[in-house]
Structure formats: structure tokens, C-alpha cells
Amino acid sequence: MAISEAVGQRPFVRAPRRGVATRLLEDERWLAAALLLPTVVLLGLFIAYPFIEGVLLSVTDTKVGIPGHFVALQNFIALWHDSIFGTAVWNTFVYTAVATVFKLALGLWLALLLNRHFRGKAFTRAFILLPFIIPTVLSTFAWKWMFDPTFSVINWSLFQLGLIHGRINWLGDPNLALISVIIVNVWRGVPFFAISLLAGLQTINPELQEAAAIDGARPWQRFWHVTWPLLLPVTMVVVLFSVIQTFADFQLVYVLTGGGPANATQLFATYAYQVGVGTGLLSEGAAISLAMFPFLLIVVVVQLLYIRRVEVH
Amino acid sequence: MIEGAKWRRWVYFYIPLSGFVFWLLFPFYWMLVTSIRPDRELYRPWMAPNYTPFWTAHPTLVHVMDLLTETLFTRWMLNTLFIAIVSTVISLFCGVFAGYALSRLKFPFAGSLGAGIFITYLVPQTLLFIPLADIIRNFHLGDTPWALILTYPTFLIPFCTWLLMGYFKAIPRELEECARIDGATRWKAMLYIIIPIAVPGIMSAGIFAFTLSWNEFIYALVFLSSAEQKTVSVGVTSELVRGDVFYWGQLMAGALLGSIPVAFIYSFFVEHYVAGLTGSVKG
After folding, report:
1. Which of A172, A301, B151, B224 holds its CA 20 to 30 A away from the CA of B135?
2. What ipTM was estimated for this complex?
3. Which residues in chain B are contacts of A111 at CB distance < 8 A?
4. What is the pTM of this model?
5. Topology adopted by domain A82-312
6. Do residues B31 and B170 both lie within one domain?
């Protein structure tokens, strides 16, 4: 009896009152919705919506200030017959393929060098990343100045070394311009490859190397049969990232050559800019940009499949 | 270390490494030398007998002074700083919440939302800049910093989310459960237990996002038109090249000064930056 009385007498203590919002946020689904809302709104507004807008734009004949009419696939058919577009597609593939191969090869080499112990290692690592962190447009101007046919320090050096006799017009010669642009792209990309691959190398247990060495493997064999297979997952991801960035590159070419001479360095993005912004043919520019999409999609799908496969294993 | 004779160490290690360092850093040295070189030396053809490429006998600050007094350079720096800071803060805010939700909460469509954000991470700016310019105009944001502040998060949020998901995943569930048993709401457990643990990740994401926004070019080029609204990259590109005339001294001085804020932040947070860089790849 006493107990029940005691219970009865004590005023019932309520849990502290919580607002509707707090109670809803206790539910995982509502909390997730609330947390994701700002991201979804921003990405929807400035990625999904422009994408749809871009598709709609590309099937009209809109120009700056002039609303367009529906023209179905005419813009894309026109592109198909456009020889400059053909050049841009070809250049983009060459640019991406050659630059990526060199970035990977040199980046891997540099990563292997940095993976050793030596004095000033942290210092060196910090400094070699500079090309990657300094705003691309600004560092590209330094290259443009170094490539200047009349004042080029590169020409001077090659001349002094006796390698050339006349002047080299790095950016003005249609046969050389794409190579020059690729050199700058490789210069900018190597640190990214090197540092990412270095991070990959550091996760590899050194005992594996030692074991292979004890078994009599030569340095090259140790690299090829031990290091490289273990590094492959990181390498794949880095390469795919870099391929997307290189494929869609704009600023480097815009600063160095603007797509010239005679479209020798014209890429998808620079051509889209020239047509869409320079000439004001919005719909055609949008069509050129969108023409990148299938290629990018393939790369992204490969990447997603690869990541999934790695996660399963 | 390389085994064997000393010459092998030189051939396989010191020489290639020095080659890399020289190649990667020379353009910055060249920037510096050009920006303090007087014009009469600057425009001396390389064929000229008295061409002194690697140093200057008469260093001058005239290009830097011209840049600071005759152009809107300081204005561009402030614009870029403002845009980079605000868009980084917005992206961190969104990225922390989204990363937490995607890595630690169970809800329908979590997988597809995560994949969706990952795909937007891979969308290059050059794919959408033309329709986006149209949208910015319709929203009356054209030629204002907000055009960039609101669009930069489109490539910063996916990156921050992706990076932070990795950090959040590594935090043991028990920590959160303890707090909840002690009466904390989910919201408070996240705010006071989980997020503070992820601070190193948030720092990395923030530093990386800041440098990415400082670096951005094509949106700034297309969305801004008046000289006083421009960012450093666009201002230097469009205002220091008049017609066909390149003001190389000023250009290089601008490139050098425009790189300093990024280099400064980078030098203090190298480790965080590298963590962000490698984390962004590994996910």
C-alpha cells in the first residue's frame, strides 16, 4: 500500500518536452532528408536543371537575346558535318591520351623516387605539388611567356646547348602547338599523380618487397610483380579522374593558344566557348558541350563499376 | 635505398629527382624573375648577345607598383577571397551534413543518392557552362559574386561529401550510441560527438575547397563581365592583355601575387591538403 501511495503522491515527471522538429529529427529518415536538403537543392538547381536546360537548348536555334525554335537534331547534324568540330574531337582524344600516358609514367616515376628516405623529403614533396595548387591560369601564363618565340628562355637554352639553330615557334606552329599544350598539361598533372600514387605506395607493406628481394627478384621484377599489382586500384581511380579533367580541359588552351593556330589545339570546351560565348550561338555551343557527355559517361560508368568491384573484393 | 655503387645512386635517384624538381619549379622562378625585370631587359630577344635569361642586373618593382596602382588587381584579389571563402563555407556546411547522412544513417535511396553525388563530382564545369550562364541571367545573378558563390558549391559539395564520408565511416557507432543512451538526441549526438571527431577531415576538405575555388576559371570568365567584379584569374587574363599587347611584367607580377594566398594557406596546411588530395581519390 505504502508503495502505491508513494507512487501516487509523487507528481508524474514528464520527459522534457521536445518540439515537433526535434521529434521528427529522431527518425533517421527525416534527419537524413533534412541533412541532405541543402545539398540536393543546390545540386539540383545548378547541375540537374542546367543539364536539362542544356539538352533543351541544344535542340533549338537559340542565339543570345533571340529565343529559338525547336529544330530537333539539326545542331548535332550540323556538327557532324563541321570539319572544325571533327578537328576538335580528334585533338581532344589525342590531348587526353598522350597527356594521360605521360602523366602516369612520369607521376609514377616521381612517386617511386619520393617513396625513398632522403633528407628534405617532406620539403621536396611540399614543393613539387606547387604546379597543382597554383591557379592554372596564372601558371600557364608563365609557360606562355616561356614559349614566346622571340623572348623564349627555352629557345635560348636549346640554342646554347647546340640542339637547335633557328627559333622554335612553340605555340604558333600548327604542328607543334598541340605538343606544347600537352607539355604544360603534363607539367600541371604530374604532381597530382605523384602524390596520389605515393599515398598508394605508402600503404604497401615493405615486407612484401623484402620477401621478394630475398627470393632473388631484381628491382624491376619486384616493381612489376609486387608493387604494380598492389598499386593498380589507386592508379585506376587517379587515371580516370585525370582523364575526365583532361578531356574537358579549357583554361590551359584558352590561355596558351585560344584553340589556334588554325584550330590545331581546338578542344571540345574551347570550341564550345568560341561558338557559344564568342559568337553567341548558344544552342550550337550547348550542343558541342553536350557532345562530350557520352564519352564522359563511359568513363564514369567504368569508374563506378571498378569501385564497386573493388568494394566487393 | 638503392643498393650498390655510389654512381648508381646518382643515376637512379639524385639526377632524376633534381630533374623533376627543376622542371616543376622553374616556371615559378621564371615568373619571379620576369616580374622584377625592367622592360628594356624584358623585351630583348633571346638571340641578342646580351640576353641574360636567369637573372636580372637591375631588379625593379615597377611592374608590381603599376599592377597595384593602375589596375584593379587588389579589387580582384578581394573578390576572389570573398567568393572562395563564402563558397567554401557553404560547401562545408552542406558537405558535412550530407556526408554524415550518407555514411551513418539508414534511409531509402541512400545508395542511389550517394552514387548521384559521386557522379556530380565528376561533372566538369565545361559541360554545363552555357546553359548555366542562361540560368544565372534568368536569376538576375549575372555579373555579381553570387553567380560564383552559388555555383562553385556544385563541384565543391560533392568533393567535400565524398571526402567526409570516409572520415565519418571510420568513427565507431558505439560513440554515438553512448551519447544517445545518455539522452542526447540524434541531432545533438551528431553535432557534439561525431562532427568534432571529424574536424581534421573538415579542415582538409575546407582547404582543398578553398584552393579549388581560387583556381576556378570558366564560370568566372563567362558569368562576370565588368572589370571590377572579376576574380584574379579572369582579371589578369582579360585586363592585362589589351588587344594583342601583353604586359608581361605586370602579368607575371599578377600571376605571382595572385598565387600567394593559395600558396600561403597551402604552406601552413600541407598535410591537410595532401590528406584532402589523396582522400578525394580514395574516397
Report:
1. A301
2. 0.90
3. none
4. 0.89
5. MetI-like fold (1.10.3720)
6. no
